[in-house]
Amino acid sequence: MTGNRFSGKVAIVTGGAGGLGIAICSSIAAEGGSVAVFDASQEQVDRAVADLEAEGAPVIGLCADVRDPAALEAATAQVVDRFGGLDILVAAAGGSLGTPRDLEDISPEDLDLVIDVNIKGTYYSAAAAVPHLRTRGAGAIVTFSSIGGRSTSPVTGIPYAAAKAGILGLTRRLAREVGPDAIRVNAIAPGLFLTGRLQGMFDAMSEHDRNEVLDSIPLRRMPGIEECVEPVLFLASDQSSYITGAVLDVNGGRFMAG
Ligand SMILES: NC(=O)c1ccc[n+]([C@@H]2O[C@H](COP(=O)([O-])OP(=O)(O)OC[C@H]3O[C@@H](n4cnc5c(N)ncnc54)[C@H](O)[C@@H]3O)[C@@H](O)[C@H]2O)c1
């Protein structure tokens, strides 16, 4: 779908150089928005910006570790300087970040990394964005949970489950706090989307675990990346103008909320 939902809007996408992040940036720009890619390394940021510029997107890229609140504040201020304001934050930086899945293999450092990037990173990104959204008089924040935080995924481990469940509490509480400022906050909870990184992880799983994933999807197929992007755009746009504090499961029916 290509419309004009983001005409005149400015969006920050953390993890914007990642598989889902860059697809979200590209689609927001295709619908008239200006996008800011925040990611962990300058090299990743530069590559993402070059790809987006090649598509004609109005884009700025900034190297900002979401675990660093001062870096996020500075980067967010730079976006506002460049584009004149901020309307949307998509907090996509996260993942299990190469940490092991099984309890006996997980170190305290692994646990800290997953909690810090996913939960604290979402918190710090939102804290940096909210003052600018308040200045604008409205805004939308989309956080990234996961099916791994909604149920017991065989793909990811306990730290990821805890972090992605924690993001739902963060999302609801933040939605309550900033609702009076016309800022909406919603979470997306994707099932398994085979971006480059995850294709390798999926291929490396045992056949038993792969079949467990496929057999548990009522729609009986893996999704295309755009099938996650569209729901994110819905939550980021005025199409969801009366939805806040919600979680949108995008998983082919693999987990159905009661
Ligand atoms: N792809 C899936 O199947 C899936 C499923 C459920 C949830 N998710 C969530 O969606 C989001 C995006 O996932 P993806 O598949 O695009 O993964 P990805 O690994 O391709 O992208 C994540 C991006 O976050 C960046 N990042 C990591 N640590 C960071 C830090 N400290 N500061 C700033 N950026 C950092 C990475 O460099 C990367 O570019 C993640 O939060 C992930 O947990 C993905």
Produce a short descriptive summary.
This protein has nine helices and seven strands; from the N terminus they run βαβαβαβαβααβαααβ. The protein is of the alpha/beta class and 258 residues long.
The counted number of beta strands is: 7
Summed up, the helix count is 9
C-alpha termini separation = 30 Å
Order of strands across the widest beta sheet?
A: 3-2-1-4-5-6-7
In one word, what is the shape?
globular
When the domains are counted, the total is 1
In the CATH hierarchy, the architecture is 3-Layer(aba) Sandwich
CATH class: Alpha Beta
CATH topology: Rossmann fold
| Structure ligands | nicotinamide-adenine-dinucleotide
Describe this structure in words.
There is one protein chain. The protein is an alpha/beta fold. It has one domain (10-195, 225-249): 3-Layer(aba) Sandwich (Rossmann fold). 48% of the residues lie in helices and 15% in strands. It is built from nine helices and seven strands; from the N terminus they run E-H-E-H-E-H-E-H-E-H-H-E-H-H-H-E. The protein has a seven-stranded parallel beta sheet with strand order 3-2-1-4-5-6-7, with helices on both faces. Helix 3 runs parallel beside helix 4 and helix 4 (108-136) runs parallel beside helix 6. The chain is globular and about 50 Å long. The model has no long low-confidence stretch (mean pLDDT 96). Nicotinamide-adenine-dinucleotide (NAD) binds next to helix 1, helix 4 and helix 7.
